[in-house]
Amino acid sequence: MWLIVGLGNPGREYEQTRHNIGFRCVSRLAQRYAIDFSGKRANARIGEGMIGGARVALARPQTYMNLSGNAVVGLIHWYKIDPATQMIVVYDDLDLGFGILRLRERGSAGTHNGMKSIVGQLGSPIFPRLRIGIGRQPAGWDAARYVLGRFSREEEEQLPAVIELAVDALECTVREGITVAMNRVNAPLE
Prior knowledge:
Layout: E1 2-6, H1 21-32, E2 39-41, E3 44-51, E4 54-61, H2 68-79, H3 83-86, E5 87-93, E6 101-104, H4 113-122, E7 129-133, H5 143-147, H6 153-176, H7 178-185
Parallel strand pairs: 1-4, 1-5, 5-7
Antiparallel strand pairs: 2-3, 3-4, 6-7
Helix pairs in contact: 1-6, 2-4, 6-7
């Protein structure tokens, strides 16, 4: 069983924001495998199904970003999984250029409040995560304003390809394991 959590904020006003790229990736993965988000559990919208012969639960926490840990810890307990080996969290990252993906088995929360909440609630940073670069905010901009803003027209045009790569990475993680997926996703660009 894999728990795949896409971070974001609930509500129409946040749907297309940079901060909701985790929601968008998990939604695209659900679409690829005809999984619907008809379930509700632990303050999250849930879709359950199969990917590559493995059971998966796809989750979009409804707690708002800064309280993501509440939903994630509730889901870990509900599904009785080991987050170090059976969970992956997908989220936006200011420290990566737009469209760059980084898959890791563990790491710090960095400046991301959703990840800070998850690490704090879990009491451990040891769980896989897929970071999706949204680029750094322009000089003089507040980081919160930037992540809650929309992608530029040019970025939005490129976003479907970025999301497909992220979904491929999630699928590879479930099918072939985190090490194989990291070798593919984290390969230097040619």
